[in-house]
Amino acid sequence: MESHATSPEASESSDPATPAKRISICAWCGTPINRTASQLKHEVISEDASGDRGQTTETHGICTLCIADLGVYPIESLMDYDRESFDDLPFGIVEVDAQGRVLTYNKWEEELADRSRSQTLGRNFFSEVAPCTGVAEFEGRFRELVAAGVPAREQLDFLFRFPGGDTLVSVALTWAPDLGRGFVLVQKVGE
Ligand SMILES: [Zn+2]
User: Fold this and answer.
1) Which among 45, 86, 166, 176 could bridge 106 via Cys, Cβ 3.0 to 4.6 Å?
2) How far is the CA of 13 from the centre of ligand 1 (A)?
3) What is the pLDDT along the chain (191 residues), one digit of tens a residue?
4) How many angstroms separate the alpha carbon of residue 93 from the centre of ligand 1?
5) Closest to 115 in 3D by CA, of 180, 79, 162, 160
6) 62 alpha carbon to ligand 1 midpoint, in Å?
7) Which residues contact 2 (CB under 8 A, 6 or more apart)?
C-alpha cells in the first residue's frame, strides 16, 4: 500500500488546540492498559471506534497479566512513576536517553548485574554497563526505536552474559521521543 519513500516527518495537520489523547500500552506484551477496571470496556471501545490515531499519543506501562506473577499492581505509565519507587519493583528498570546513557538504574537491576548505581549512572548502557547488549538484536533495536521518532516498544528474549554465568531474560524496550527517554525492562525467564 505504502508506495512513497520513508518520510518520518509526517506533515499531517496536528491541531495544537486539541490535546492528544494518551493511550497506555504494556511494554512487555503490547496490550492496552486501562486506568481502572471500571473504565476498561469503555476506553478500549471508544478509542477503537474513534479511529483518530492522529490525536493519540502512546505511553508505556505494565499490564495486569504481565505483572500478575510479580505480586504488584499494574503500572499505567512508567514515565509518570516515582523513580524512587522503582526500587520496590521486582524486575529490572534502566532508564536511558537517546544515546543510551543511564538515567535511572533500579535496585533489582543492581542485584541482577551485581553492579551498583554509582558505577552505572551517566554511563552508556550498551557499551559500558552491559556490553553484551551492544549487538544488533538489542542495541540495534533500541536505536531503531529512537530513529523512528514515535512512541514505541519492543520485546525480546536475551541471554545476559555475567561473570557468574549466563541468565536468560525477557527484555522490553520503550521509547518516548517527546521526553527523549526510554526504558530497558528486564525480568528473568521462568521465574
Ligand atoms: Zn502485558
Assistant:
1) 86
2) 32
3) 444 554 444 444 545 556 678 899 999 999 998 755 544 444 444 444 444 445 678 999 999 888 877 778 889 999 999 999 999 999 999 999 999 999 999 999 999 999 999 999 999 999 999 999 999 999 999 999 999 999 999 999 999 988 888 999 999 999 999 999 999 999 998 75
4) 15
5) 162
6) 5
7) none
Rounded distance, CA 128 to CA 17, Å?
Answer: 43
For residues 62 and 75, is the Cβ–Cβ distance under 8 A?
A: yes
- pTM attached to this predicted model: 0.80
Q: Which of 39, 33, 37, 68 is nearest to 153 (CA)?
A: 33
- Cα-to-centroid distance, 177 and ligand 1 (Å): 21
Residue ranges of domains in the chain, CATH in brackets: 21-188 (3.30.450.20)
For the record, the C-alpha cell of 34 comes out as 486501562
Return the half-sphere exposure (C-beta side, CA atoms, 13 A cut-off) of residue 101: 8
Task: Compute, in angstroms, the gap from residue 33 CA to the centroid of ligand 1.
Answer: 8
**What count of residues does the chain have?**
191
For residue 70, the one-letter residue type is: L
Distance between CA 22 and CA 28 in Å, rounded? 18
Three-class DSSP category at 2: coil
What is the whole-number distance in angstroms between the Cα of residue 176 and the centre of ligand 1? 18
